[in-house]
Design goal:
eleven-stranded mixed sheet, 11 strands, 12 helices, 45% helix
Length: 332
């Protein structure tokens, strides 16, 4: 398979994208060719730091522009046609690659992918699908920020697409789909969730009803459906809480020698929990619903996060998730 990586997108570009590309080519043999999209001179210099240069598996695609985080999403797609983000999507649209990955401007990536690739047949609105940890495994949050103004039928589509994702990528035979709400009772929620509840209940999926916030990390559902406004708040709150918790824990542990001694004995447990709550381990989020495999990595992605984003892209290509989504939506 061939994957395009926006090497100029994100807070730590091109350093982290290039390092992730070098790592991915060593560890992910399924990637036959990786195309780094960005300023060729800058990318060659960065590759040289790793003792690498363009090769049969590693190509460079030169671009002259970069979409900044302060740029307007749609405006950036229209005016910065030669940006690394836009050209990565162009390569996907043209069939030159099987997937595109970017840690750049979220709004611009969603706009570029929906405008250029269009939605899959039967998809009303694309959504960002993000994996998050539970006590026993993971759950898929959808939508995590692609669209802040959702309609009930959009949430229905998210439930179906999320179910397909879990079946094909996570290998969960009959995934539980829940609707994020302020109460488990059917009568709870606002007009959006009440109408979405009716649609999800009638859909050919394993819908378990409303799920409250405190049930998310207990594994109440395999797929949690919400609009992008709420989903993005949930995602960023959870990420910041995980980081803050470990910071507080470190401060308390180092406050006296006895606690430090006890912490040494529990070091393995701390490392396991940290890995489980580290967003970098989960990689990027698929933009489900667009006619192509497009992965959004966090803007502040580390090398590990971008490596895992490339892994997520390769898994989506291997499982041919989009045809499965089309089939599932045809019988909704």
């Amino acid at each position: 398979m061939k994957i395009a990586l926006d090497a100029m997108g994100g807070d730590f570009a091109p350093v982290n994208p290039v390092a992730a590309a070098v790592q991915a080519l060593k560890k992910l043999p399924a990637i036959e060719r990786l195309i780094l999209v960005g300023d060729e001179d800058i990318l060659r210099a960065e590759l040289a730091k790793h003792g690498e240069e363009p090769s049969e598996r590693l190509h460079l695609f030169h671009t002259t522009q970069v979409i900044e985080m302060t740029d307007g999403a749609v405006e950036a797609v229209r005016r910065k046609k030669d940006s690394s983000l836009n050209r990565a999507i162009d390569l996907l649209k043209e069939g030159a690659v099987d997937a595109a990955v970017s840690a750049g401007h979220t709004g611009a990536l969603v706009a570029s992918s929906t405008i250029k690739l269009r939605n899959l047949k039967g998809v009303d609105r694309a959504g960002i699908a993000t994996l998050m940890p539970t006590r026993a495994g993971k759950f898929l949050l959808l939508d995590a920020g692609a669209s802040v103004d959702a309609k009930p039928e959009h949430l229905l589509g998210y439930g179906i697409m999320g179910s397909v994702y879990c079946q094909n990528i996570l290998k969960i035979a009959n995934p539980k789909v829940g609707l994020l709400c302020n109460g488990t009772e059917e009568v709870k929620g606002n007009e959006l969730t009440k109408e979405a509840f009716k649609l999800l209940k009638a859909a050919p999926i394993h819908f378990i009803g409303n799920v409250e916030g405190h049930g998310l990390f207990e594994g109440a559902a395999d797929v949690v459906v919400c609009d992008g406004f709420i989903g993005n708040i949930v995602l960023k709150t959870a990420e910041s809480l995980a980081k803050a918790t470990f910071k507080w824990l470190k401060e308390e542990i180092t406050s006296n020698p006895i606690r430090m001694a006890g912490a040494m004995l529990a070091q393995g447990a701390f490392k396991s929990i940290k890995a489980k709550t580290n967003a970098d381990e989960y990689g990027g989020a698929l933009i489900l619903g667009v006619n192509g495999i497009c992965v959004k990595a966090h803007g502040s992605s580390s090398t590990l996060a971008l490596y895992n984003s490339l892994r997520v892209a390769s898994e989506a290509v291997e499982t041919q998730i989009n045809p499965h989504i089309v089939d599932a939506l045809s019988i909704k």
